[in-house]
């Protein structure tokens, strides 16, 4: 599971050799630990004229006690003033060695392709000032919600900008695009806290949509899941174990579910069994009276090229990875066991997005998960519930440790971080979806892949 | 019995000697000599010879200990009546304007009818003190009562005690020069070299134009061969200023000898009176000194820039007088450094500064830059610390008189994190 190459590149002599040979130099990614600030360094806030998101962003930055800088004049500065921030002044021409832990830009005011010049004006003097493990966040309006085709065009253009910036920033820094629907300005906090913080260490080049929240909640940001009950399938090891730990860290009571042979779990259960949905429903009902989040993490691979794949290899993968989730969801929903402001969080994969030779079964199941998220999101919103998925890339687990060496090295390096992610990186994203404050995050599939080249 | 309501305070005129660069034309001139010359010029212009004035208030920032009674000595050396009382004022670069404010208040209250306020400074004829160690030994020697004690004190003398204490242009609490402090402010406000050089060039050009059209003819008494300010470069330009190396703020600093005021020698005085006194003595009232406000900031621990106090004083002055920052025809902002002026203007425009630091609901806003230091400022004229206030009040009074119904405002920053601002009005239109 350990990435020896990455460790070696950090040694003095070998590191120099790696540099001289032009080999990838995986940066050490900062990861979050309790007690750490959301963003450990100055934040540069900017806004295109006419935007609507600088005020809520400024209020968030004030709430997390960030050291905020803005250019003089303009809407970001006015927003900072209104948020009570004693913001410092940034002028690229005179800023010397000034560095930023995060650059945040409200692009919602851009309504024409000409207006996209505002991106260059803000980021060009600042982009090389991003610290290691820094953050670049662009906020915009979902093109489908734009007022006219020109605005939709300009807003859609933000994606190409953000994905290219993600590839330019290096040294463990990430870039994200957050599309905020009109009226959802007040729902950005949990997402921005996640994206600004080291919790999103291995998440980059993503496009996240935020809608009006299905329900609102005030949370203790140190323990947002306090008093909540979450069930996690496949929880005994690997990513599932990390998910359970992080949810517990955030205050949740976790029901660990795994197949009986996996050993320690709260509810030994083969999720594909005929009575699995009923067993789950009964357990939840008996022990907790209801559930605030179900995390469908259990998944298997049975890799074979399609011509050589047996029907049972196809069927088991589809059943574990997709169909069982649908059945369990039905049981929980029909039983009214998912409480208001509840969460369904599931796991897709970059294979499901990009496709992968030898994984027709797996990729089909994982693309199906993405489809399930998209299809159910509007339905669940009416019941004050959300559904979202993470799509992990190369994560250092026992499963990926079994991948042949050459393929494994390729998987590790072929992303903007030049390294695999850790189970905790997936778990942090799931905890963000699961947070009661994430009521505006619905129908998203967010990759935890370090901007993998696959399916990008 | 003094009048019950404060009286209007008239500014009747100003006079100064041309300002000289440090160790230049006035290298051997004393503060007392320069101040006396400035006063006598005013005496001559206003026929004050042998007159007993209510008082003379003036000061110097760099002062010899023998000049403890500088203003009074200058009066005695002048052609004013020797029974004119005087006192010294010191508020760093705010001295001149603070002196004006002090006598204005007494005139307003009816305690005096006419006064001269002003200031003088020399950085050439500077007060050098003996080495601090030597001073202690000499004091010990002075206290000694026996020869043994005297010998003991003398035995402590060392060759290096000959090194004198020279006054430094540094803040005692930070050890940083004013320029280095302002370099921090310039960086904080993102002020560019180009902006500063532009302001400096305009200061020289405006001052030169003012001389050329005779604006200073009745405001200046030539002294020691100087008829114009020695620092003035009529041909100053942004291009020329751009060639200078940074003087403060390190290698990539934006502040140069061109956009910072040089050390300067000079003196200025202003004649103020009640309107009744002016009329009785047949003098035209150039302007009214309306009000002033001082402020100070914590530049030591409070994170505010050393020279940002005028930004704080201004909104308080405006509110008390029911005015907006835009309600003025002339803005006289002392150009200690171009960066100080620019930072002040940016601060007033900035919603963050105005809300968080000044506690205002909205920014004070922008000013019309064509109304700023229209007859030149300290970058062109130079800045003999205590003499700058008098230079500005005298010039502004004349500008206001030239345009009836106009209004002007003064802003002067000072060492120690202090600042003073004032409002003056011209005759009614």
The N- to C-terminal Cα distance of chain A equals 25 Å
Q: How many helices of chain A in DSSP terms?
A: 15
**Parts with pLDDT < 50 across at least 5 consecutive residues of chain A:** none
Q: What integer is the average pLDDT of chain B?
A: 95
Shape of chain B: globular
Write a structural description:
The complex is a heterodimer of chains A (456) and B (429). Chain A is 38% helix and 18% strand. Chain A has helices spanning 4-9, 12-21, 54-63, 74-82, 117-123, 149-169, 189-196, 238-249, 276-287, 311-334, 350-354, 360-381, 398-401, 405-413, 423-434; strands at residues 43-47, 68-70, 88-89, 100-106, 130-140, 174-180, 206-210, 229-233, 253-258, 267-268, 291-296, 338-347, 385-392, 445-448. The longest helix of chain A has 24 residues, at 311-334. The relative contact order of chain A is 0.12. The mean pLDDT of chain A is 95. With 429 residues, chain B is an alpha+beta fold. Chain B is 35% helix and 17% strand. Chain B is built from 14 helices and twelve strands. Chain B has helices at 31-46, 70-77, 95-108, 132-143, 147-154, 178-188, 193-212, 238-241, 275-280, 309-320, 338-349, 351-357, 378-381, 388-402, and strands at 9-16, 20-21, 55-59, 86-88, 114-121, 246-248, 255-256, 264-274, 287-296, 330-333, 407-414, 418-425. The A-B interface holds A 70-73, 77-78, 80-82, 84-91, 93-96 and B 186-192, 252, 254, 346, 349-352, 354-357.
Please supply descriptive tags for the structure shown above.
heterodimer; A: 456 residues; alpha/beta; seven-stranded parallel β-sheet; 15 helices; globular; B: 429 residues; alpha+beta; ten-stranded mixed β-sheet; two-stranded antiparallel sheet; 14 helices; 17% strand
């Amino acid at each position: 599971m350990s990435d020896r190459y990455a460790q070696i590149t950090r040694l003095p002599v070998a590191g120099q050799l790696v540099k001289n040979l032009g080999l990838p130099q995986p940066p050490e990614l900062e990861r979050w630990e309790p007690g750490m600030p959301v963003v450990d360094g100055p934040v540069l806030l900017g806004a295109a004229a006419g935007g609507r998101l600088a005020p809520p962003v400024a209020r968030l930055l004030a709430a997390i006690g960030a050291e905020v800088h803005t250019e003089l004049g303009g809407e970001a500065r006015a927003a900072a003033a209104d948020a009570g921030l004693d913001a410092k002044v940034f002028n690229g021409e005179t800023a010397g060695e000034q560095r930023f832990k995060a650059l945040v830009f409200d692009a919602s005011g851009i309504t024409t392709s000409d207006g996209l010049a505002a991106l260059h004006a803000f980021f060009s003097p600042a982009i090389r000032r991003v610290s290691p493990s820094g953050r670049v966040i662009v906020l915009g309006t979902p093109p489908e919600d734009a007022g006219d085709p020109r605005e939709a065009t300009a807003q859609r253009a933000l994606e190409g900008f953000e994905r290219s910036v993600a590839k330019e920033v290096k040294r463990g820094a990430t870039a994200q695009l957050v599309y905020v629907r009109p009226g959802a300005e007040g729902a950005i906090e949990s997402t921005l806290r996640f994206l600004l913080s080291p919790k999103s260490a291995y998440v980059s080049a993503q496009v996240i949509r935020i809608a009006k929240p299905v329900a609102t909640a005030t949370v203790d940001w140190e323990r947002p899941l306090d008093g909540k009950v979450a069930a996690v399938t496949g929880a005994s090891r690997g990513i599932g174990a990390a998910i359970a730990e992080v949810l517990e860290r955030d205050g949740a009571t976790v029901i660990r579910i795994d197949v009986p042979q996996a050993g320690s779990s709260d509810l030994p259960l083969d999720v594909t069994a005929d009575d699995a949905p009923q067993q789950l429903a009964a357990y939840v009902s008996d022990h907790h009276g209801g559930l605030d989040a179900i995390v469908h993490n259990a998944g298997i691979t049975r890799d074979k090229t399609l011509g050589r794949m047996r029907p049972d290899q196809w069927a088991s993968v589809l059943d574990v990875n997709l169909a069982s989730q649908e059945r369990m969801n039905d049981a929980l929903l029909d039983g009214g066991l998912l409480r208001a402001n509840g969460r369904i969080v599931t796991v897709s994969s970059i294979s499901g997005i990009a496709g992968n030779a030898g994984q027709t079964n797996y990729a089909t199941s994982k693309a199906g998960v993405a489809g399930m998220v998209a299809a159910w999101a509007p339905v669940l919103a009416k019941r004050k519930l959300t559904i979202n998925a993470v799509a992990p890339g190369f994560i250092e687990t026992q499963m990926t440790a079994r991948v042949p060496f050459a393929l494994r090295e390729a998987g590790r390096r072929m992303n903007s971080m030049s390294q695999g992610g850790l189970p905790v990186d997936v778990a942090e994203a799931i905890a963000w979806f699961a947070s009661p404050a994430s009521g505006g995050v619905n129908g998203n599939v967010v990759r935890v892949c370090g901007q993998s080249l696959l399916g990008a | 019995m003094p009048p019950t309501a404060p009286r209007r305070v008239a500014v009747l005129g100003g006079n100064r000697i041309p300002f000289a660069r440090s160790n230049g034309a006035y290298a051997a001139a004393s503060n007392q000599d320069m101040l006396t010359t400035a006063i006598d010029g005013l005496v001559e212009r206003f026929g004050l010879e042998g007159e007993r004035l209510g008082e003379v208030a003036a000061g110097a920032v760099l002062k010899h200990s023998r000049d403890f009674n500088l203003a009074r000595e200058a009066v005695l050396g002048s052609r004013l009546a020797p029974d004119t009382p005087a006192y010294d004022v010191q508020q760093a670069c705010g001295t001149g304007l603070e002196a004006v404010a002090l006598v204005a208040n007494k005139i307003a209250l009816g305690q005096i009818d006419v006064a001269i306020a002003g200031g003088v400074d020399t950085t050439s004829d500077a007060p050098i003190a003996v080495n601090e160690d030597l001073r202690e030994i000499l004091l010990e020697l002075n206290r000694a009562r026996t020869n043994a004690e005297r010998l003991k004190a003398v035995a402590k003398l060392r060759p290096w005690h000959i090194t004198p204490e020279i006054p430094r242009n540094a803040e005692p609490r930070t050890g940083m020069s004013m320029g280095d402090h302002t370099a921090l402010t310039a960086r904080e406000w993102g002020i560019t070299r180009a902006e500063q050089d532009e302001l400096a060039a305009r200061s020289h050009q405006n001052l030169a134009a003012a001389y050329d059209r005779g604006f200073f003819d009745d405001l200046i008494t030539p002294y020691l061969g100087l008829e114009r300010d020695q620092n003035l470069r009529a041909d100053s330009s942004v291009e020329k200023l751009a060639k200078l190396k940074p003087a403060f703020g390190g290698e990539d600093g934006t502040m140069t000898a061109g956009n910072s005021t040089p050390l300067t020698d000079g003196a200025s005085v202003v004649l103020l009176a009640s309107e009744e006194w002016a009329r009785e003595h047949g003098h035209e009232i150039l302007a009214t000194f309306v009000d002033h406000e001082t402020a100070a900031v914590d530049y030591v621990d409070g994170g505010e820039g050393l020279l940002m106090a005028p930004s704080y004083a201004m909104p308080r002055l405006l509110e008390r007088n029911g005015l907006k920052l835009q309600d003025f025809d002339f803005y006289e902002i002392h150009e200690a450094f171009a960066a100080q002026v620019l930072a002040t203007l940016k601060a007033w425009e900035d919603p963050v500064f105005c809300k968080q630091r000044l506690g205002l609901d909205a920014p004070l806003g922008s000013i019309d830059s064509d109304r700023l230091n229209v007859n030149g400022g300290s970058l062109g004229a130079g800045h003999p610390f205590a003499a700058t206030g008098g230079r500005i009040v005298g010039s502004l009074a004349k500008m206001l008189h030239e345009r009836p119904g106009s209004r002007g405002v003064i802003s002067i920053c000072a060492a120690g994190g202090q600042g003073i601002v004032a409002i003056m009005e011209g005759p009614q239109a």
